[in-house]
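Format notes (please read before filing issues)

Several people have asked whether sequences and structure tokens are stored in separate files. They are not. Every record keeps both together, in the order shown below: the sequence lines, then the token lines. Line labels are part of the format and must not be stripped during preprocessing.
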Amino acid sequence: MAFPISYMFFLLTLILGSAISISSSSWFGGWIGLELNMMSFIPLITLKMNSYFSEAALKYFLIQALGSALFIYASCVSISLTHLMFIFTLFALLLKLAAAPFHFWFPQVAEGLHWPQMFILSTIQKLAPMILISYLTVNVILTKMIMISAILSALVGAWGGLNLTLLRKILAFSSINHMSWMLMAISISDTFWLSYFFFYSFISLSVMMTFFKIQAFSLSTIIQSSQTSNFFPLLLSVNMFSLGGLPPFTGFVPKWILIQIMVNLNLFFTLFFLLTSALITLYFYLRMTIPFLLMSSPTMNFNTKTMQLTPTSTLLLIFTSFNLYGILLPVYSLLI
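Then the structure lines:
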């Protein structure tokens, strides 16, 4: 799939919008960056015009416009109602993040996106709102509300992904579930949530690149591809296990660190919901990978006739190798 020059232009302005929000010293500057970010992402959605992409772009615009309106309304609240102003600001940012209970739009929009746009929506588009939310944790009431949203996101992301066969919806609910861990990290730590975010971004990139390479949008597509090649199913299995946080893959590392932090802070009640949701999400990741591993060719044939290492395949191998770094976790634990 060749990307036109306009795609790169809007991608750069999208990153610029995030940078403006992150570096801004005022809420107005943060809002300007979010608006530039939104208006740059909509043309990326409609890069290839059809009814699905147009519908996704319209839904995304309406939801983000609602969040922006709520953001502006919060700034108009009387200065004597400071708590109410910041509560509305938090709601606006949670809506833009698709964190529960404002998650309803995310799976529907994700279903109308292609894989590159799906990756941007799940990662880059969430960076600026999360940084703005981290500024609100100085207020105890808002911190408690962020924790409640984290618990709800964990439950919604886990139960919503069950019994689904469409890959983009599954990864949408997976993103909501991972959002719960990042929101919890924001509420209890100043900087660790950024580490979790970058771990999640790299792992998501490896998963979505694999889906993009084999043009998979449902479980049946993956099963069909596993019958002709063992290469991509094996890569996908490693990537999905890492995304689910299965030890000893890399995706387990940020969760393990956050679990230690929460235990030290005696946040056992919240940790119970996060761990329960992690087990449920791991179940539907395993449900995705086990069938096509069992149905793949019994002879693990990796000769050059069945597998040609194109630049894309080589890049996939590099990103997949990142998901194996978690094997070094015991060594890391001995050093600290």
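For reference, the curators noted about this record: Confidence is low (pLDDT under 50) at residues 301-306. The two ends are 45 Å apart (CA to CA).
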